[in-house]
Structure formats: structure tokens, C-alpha cells
DNA sequence: TAAATATTCAATTGATCAATTGAATATTTA
DNA sequence: TAAATATTCAATTGATCAATTGAATATTTA
């Protein structure tokens, strides 16, 4: 192999590996999942991921270095977000690949359901059909700020901690579909548990908003999140 | 955050990170690119990547552990291959994401063309149109064994080292499109250089066969490579 | 201007990973 | 069966990375 080709390849693969390195840490994968919901401050991310602010900041610097995220300073706050939609799609494909190839992950996912009674899922394709017919109620159980940054069209925002207070507003004779942050999040599972315990017909949609978007691109109920205030503003 | 949720997330992200770790090494990314062309023995991979057999084997064990590759023992040989098509698609999306986000990589790619005169590219979409019209000649300049394992439909195999011997067989009045292993490989660039130096109209298709496949799924000139002999059999 | 707050930076430490080396193992052939 | 060959394994060493700690920096407010 020619020396020039060797140099080219070494350089090219080193650049590709920047992204690989960024997603080689479980912590950073979790951060990326959080940022899939919209932009967040460092301390919000730290709280969501149970890490110190300093450690979170370090990980975010790594994500910046690999160009997967961007940030904007607003006062004393730094708001981080995914660099663009292709990053979200890449993370989704990583998740789907792992689900397909890693049996240990398959097992973890199955345990969600074996550890709980009566949690059922709905596929996105079926949800789309049902929503067109109007015989389903879709609820987003993430924090309201995330709903406001982006959500599946037609969804109602009921953050998980408010769910029990809102039971009276929900139709007892219609199926309720609950979704949250995606495949690695249990909020929607909890929601379905609560709903079913109260006699509602409820199922989980495990796909995230970004997954919805990447499969239903003609919908556009997504606004750029950088001009929205994050929950830290009080 | 609940303890149970914490445990779930830690476990899930640890599993996802297995794939991240696998692609955090430049060397392994190069190996995956080689395996995108079809199954190979350890020593062939070692030779292609300029690594020792022992080091190559170590990296391959890492790729096995993350389920991105599989192998089959045949006599004293171990033939490694990508686990399935979703792995190839994932690597392609990594490459495309990096090309989009990493300016240093963009620069490396531009230098291919600034360091050489007159290398032009053709897009896959245009190639498809041209091939339907029949006014283009497509050549695959990879090693013949790779061509035989899989290739773009309609391509003629002319390994780069044979190209000058085959000039007489090529049409001087028709555009020739050369392709090779993909975006990180320079064989097709060299081929275009040679062809143009000899007065042919030649352009480069930088997409790989796997990219072709992921965008043109109705074609099926791909046979499972595990029943084919690798170039090491003499 | 000082105090309060959010974040980054730098140093340290322990953990993890990559390359090398050479022995061990498996397969084939004469 | 011994020799040749392909590959893996295990140990070692040096390099790299993650978490912690606390100082430094930037922003805002009274």
C-alpha cells in the first residue's frame, strides 16, 4: 500500500473515530438521549443523569469536540442541543442496531414487560392509522418543557407527576397511548401502569419524538428550541 | 430519579456503549470498511490495514464482542464478515454524519481533488439514470474477489493493477465511471487519474456497493459471501 | 462593588484500552 | 507423527479516558 494512501486512511479514520469515541461512553449516550428532547442547561442534564455538574460539563466538552452538539450562552446558562437532525437519526440507528444485535439489551428490554403486568405496546404505524380515525388519545408524559420544544402532533401534555391529577380528563372508553423520551426511558411505562391501575385502556409507544419525525417528515409541529426558555428559568 | 430507573438506564446505556466502543478506534473502523466488501481472513485484513496479525485478531475479537461481525472457521482460516446489512448501513450513516459535521474530514476529502488535476465525481442518482440510458461504462477497480462477492449491477471488474492492461477494452468515446471500496478508499481516484491520462473520459463514484444497496434495494446481484473462497486459497 | 450562581478548566487518580510479544491452540499435509 | 501454517490468547507496557476536586471565569443582581 502506498504511503500516501496510508496517510490518507489514517487521517480519515481518525476523524471518523471522533464520533465513535464520543458515543463510547454510556454517560454521553444518556446525555444525547436527553438532548434528543430539546436543548437543556448543564445543570438540568446533570440532574437528569445523576452526575455532577463538573462531570457533565466535561462530557459535554467531549460531545462538542466531536461536533455532535452545539451550545448557546444565555446569561449564566449554557444551553446545549444536538447539532442537527442527522445526529438524532444517527443515535436512533445506533439504538436500533444495538437492539437487533445485542442479546443482553434485548433481555433488558423484555424485562420491562416481564417485571410488570399488562404493559402492551403499539407500533407507530398503527398509531398513525388510529389517530387518523380519531379513536385514540395520545399523551406525552415527559416534562412540559420538553413537550413545548417538540412533540408528536396531536399529543396532549401530561407530565408523569401530574398524571394522577388528570385522570378525570381522560376518556375511559378510548385507548390511551402514552409516550415519553424513547426506548431507554421508563416514564411511559409508569404512565401505562398508573392508567391501567385506574381502569383505563392504555398502551405504550416506545418510539421517541425524533423517531416519529424521522419517519413522518411531512409533519412539522417542531419549532427550533433555541428561542424557548428552559425549565430553569423561574 | 427512582433507583430502579437508574439501574435500568445504566444497564441499557452500557449495552449501547458496546457498539460505541467498537467504533471508537480508527483501526477498527478501517477493518469494518474492509468487511463491507465481503468476508475476509484475518491475515488478509491485516495486510490491507498494515497491522500485525495478532493486533488485527485482537481488534476482531472486540468487534465480535460488540456483535458487529461474525466469523466462520474454514480449515486453518477464520473468515470474518459484517454481522448483517444493518451494520453496513450504520457504518455508512456514521461516515455521512462525520462528513457533514467534521470540518477536518471535509478538508481531507477536498484535498483528494485539490492534490490532483481533473478528478470529477458523479452522483449515484445520475449514474442510475445514465446506466439506464446505456451511455456509461461502470468499472469496479477493487480486487476481483471483492467484485465476485458483491458489486453494483452492470459493473465490469478491472482491478486497479490490471487497469493499464485493459485500456484497449474500454470505450474512448463513452464516459467511464470508476468505483471502489467507498468514501475512504482511493483506488477509484487512481483509476480515474490513469484513465484520464490516457485520454478517456472518466469520473469517480465515491459511494460503496453497500451504499448502492441501501439506496437501491430492489437490485439483488448480491450473493451471500460465505460459500466463496477468499483470495488466500492458492 | 460584592455576593451569588452557572459553568469551565486543570490537576489528580484510578480505570480502561491499544500495540507488542511470544506462547498456545487448531488445522492440514506429507 | 512432525512440520508448517493461521489464529488466538495472555502478559506487559505505554497511552488514553472518566470521575473527582476545587480553583478560575463569566454573568447577574442588589
Automatic annotation (TrEMBL), chains A, B:
One of the Pfam families matching this protein, by short name: HTH_5
PROSITE patterns given in the database record: HTH_ARSR_2 (PS50987), RHODANESE_1 (PS00380), RHODANESE_3 (PS50206)
Superkingdom as given in the UniProt entry: Archaea
InterPro entries: ArsR-like_HTH, HTH_ArsR_DNA-bd_dom, Metal_resp_trans_reg, Rhodanese-like_dom, Rhodanese-like_dom_sf, Thiosulphate_STrfase_CS, WH-like_DNA-bd_sf, WH_DNA-bd_sf
Domain HTH arsR-type as annotated: residue spans: 8-102
Keywords, comma-separated and alphabetical: DNA-binding, Transcription, Transcription regulation
Name of the molecule in the record: ArsR family transcriptional regulator
UniProt organism field: Methanosarcina spelaei
Amino acid at each position: 500500500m502506498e504511503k500516501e494512501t496510508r496517510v490518507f486512511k489514517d487521517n480519515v479514520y481518525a476523524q471518523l473515530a471522533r464520533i465513535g469515541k464520543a458515543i463510547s461512553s454510556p454517560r454521553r449516550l444518556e446525555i444525547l438521549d436527553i438532548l434528543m428532547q430539546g436543548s437543556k442547561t448543564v445543570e438540568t442534564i446533570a440532574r437528569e443523569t445523576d452526575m455532577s455538574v463538573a462531570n457533565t460539563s466535561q462530557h459535554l466538552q467531549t460531545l462538542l469536540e466531536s461536533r455532535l452538539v452545539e451550545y448557546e450562552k444565555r446569561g449564566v446558562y449554557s444551553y446545549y442541543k444536538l447539532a442537527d437532525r442527522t445526529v438524532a437519526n444517527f443515535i436512533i440507528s445506533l439504538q436500533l442496531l444495538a437492539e437487533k444485535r445485542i442479546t443482553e439489551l434485548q433481555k433488558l428490554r423484555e424485562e420491562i414487560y416481564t417485571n410488570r403486568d399488562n404493559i402492551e405496546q403499539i407500533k407507530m404505524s398503527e398509531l398513525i392509522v388510529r389517530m387518523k380515525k380519531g379513536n385514540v388519545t395520545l399523551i406525552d408524559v415527559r416534562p412540559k418543557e420538553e413537550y413545548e420544544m417538540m412533540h408528536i402532533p396531536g399529543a396532549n401534555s401530561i407530565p408523569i407527576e401530574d398524571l394522577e391529577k388528570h385522570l378525570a380528563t381522560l376518556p375511559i372508553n378510548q385507548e390511551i397511548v402514552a409516550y415519553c423520551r424513547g426506548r431507554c426511558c421508563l416514564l411511559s411505562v409508569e404512565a401505562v401502569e398508573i392508567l391501567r391501575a385506574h381502569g383505563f385502556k392504555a398502551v405504550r409507544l416506545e418510539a421517541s419524538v425524533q423517531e416519529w419525525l424521522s419517519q413522518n417528515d411531512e409533519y412539522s409541529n417542531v419549532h427550533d428550541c433555541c428561542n424557548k426558555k428552559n425549565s430553569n428559568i423561574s
